[in-house]
Design brief:
31% helix, 9 helices, single chain, Purple Acid Phosphatase, chain A, domain 2, binds fe (ii) ion, 4-stranded mixed beta sheet
């Protein structure tokens, strides 16, 4: 069994195209998508057309949920740009997505954690705004019954590529973000998450005789063109992250 894992495309169709080309070049037939697909000051409509043309197992992210739950007038600016670009069928597709699912018998997929689509699973934000890796006990405390029975557990949301082995021997994998390499947030305290490269991140997971092999890909693409899309929406913060991978 070999499959690719993508997450947090965030409306970046240019990055998604580069990731798709890399996946196709490697003849990888199976892909799991961990959500937060459209939200961002970029190109949600092209992203929707690219993703919906491929019938991949997908879970809904928090920003996907905001696009179908919130009144447009109350949406955050990144969600609102995406919402205004999307057609009714794109929003219907979001409504059809489950929050979590198990695929290929023993691969569990969620956006952030099994119970909460906004919670960081493999990182912790400290009171002084620094980020640390979550401990094994903190990670295992988030498991639910279904996730605890999987051999591969997939999460996204924090945009940081990472793999951890749990006590059971299962692997918890975050493929990083395909479309948004750096962002800041105000909750629980102001902090920055950044991969340090503008490249598009995703992961390839393959079952081998001795265990599961995980490869993290960092794919170059025309990130300055994506930054220009953000600048055209007045989002210099997004543009800086897309240009550099650092904020
Ligand atoms: Fe998210």
């Amino acid at each position: 069994m070999r499959f690719a894992v993508i997450a947090d495309v965030h409306g970046n169709a240019l990055a998604l195209k580069a990731v798709l080309a890399d996946i196709d070049h490697r003849a990888i037939a199976h892909v799991v998508n961990l959500g937060d697909v459209f939200s961002g000051p970029l190109d949600a409509r092209s992203t929707a057309e690219l993703l919906m043309s491929r019938d991949w197992p997908t879970v809904r992210g928090n920003h996907d949920r905001y696009l179908i739950e919130q009144n447009p007038a109350d949406m955050g600016p990144s969600d609102r740009v995406a919402y205004d670009q999307l057609r009714p069928e794109h929003l219907d597709w979001l409504r059809s997505l489950p929050a979590t699912r198990t695929v290929y018998d023993d691969v569990y997929a969620c956006h952030a954690t099994p119970r909460d689509d906004t919670r960081y699973w493999m990182e912790r934000v400290m009171a002084d705004s620094t980020i640390r890796q979550a401990t094994l006990a903190e990670i295992e405390a988030e498991l639910d019954h279904e996730a605890a029975h999987a051999n591969i557990i997939l999460c996204g949301h924090t945009h940081i590529p990472r793999v951890a082995r749990l006590s059971s021997g299962a692997l918890l994998i975050n493929p990083g973000s395909a479309g948004c390499p750096a962002y800041d947030d105000t909750e629980p305290v102001p902090h920055i998450m950044q991969t340090g490269t503008p490249n598009a991140s995703y992961a390839i997971v393959e079952k081998q005789e001795v265990g599961w092999d995980v490869s993290f890909r960092s794919v170059p693409y025309d990130h300055n063109a994506a930054a220009s899309q953000a600048r055209a929406q007045g989002r210099d913060d997004w543009a800086r992250g897309l240009e550099n991978g650092w904020l």
